[in-house]
UniProtKB/TrEMBL annotation:
Protein name: dTTP/UTP pyrophosphatase
Sites marked Important for substrate specificity: R11, T80, Q166
Gene3D superfamilies in alphabetical order: 3.90.950.10
GO MF, one example: hydrolase activity
Amino acid sequence: MKIYLASQSPRRQELLRQIGVQFDLLLPDAEEDAESLEAERAGEAPLTYVKRVVYAKALAAAQRLKRRALPALPILVADTTVALGRTILHKPVDAKDNARMLRALSGTTHRVLTGIAVVHLDKARTRIDEAVSESFVSFKPLTPRDVRNYLASGEGTGKAGGYAIQGLAGAYVTQIHGSYSGIMGLPLAETAALLKI
């Protein structure tokens, strides 16, 4: 099976290879405003947010494929959201923001929601199949030294919630309920089901 992956995440690429899916990247053009798709709306619940963002990414990827006149293969899009209660923890803007997120997650259980969509295009119509993986992650209480060391690693840069479970932050996780691959950014069971592999 071969698809387009509309994500530059190395983790998503690695996870697709793990289940034997071949892919070409279908990344946004320079003129596309990809960041505006992820802008949070006031009062939006995390699940509503991730579903909306994934659907918007799917529509944008479908338009991109048509614009480039590429062969019609399925397109996979995904979005991972970390939520503490109703508060969405986006990618940290800087080290201070990353430290704030780590302190908020310290000693608590948070949700990781990863939405995925597969876009099927043909001449007559566009079909979008969607799924959401919800996992719960518990962190041990973090010491100021833990936070400093993690910030020094730079690992939380560009990551929802300011951490990567597959890296150093794995030492902070005391319990997981749900999909480890979903927490990494691509739930493999849901992905395989949507791709029918």
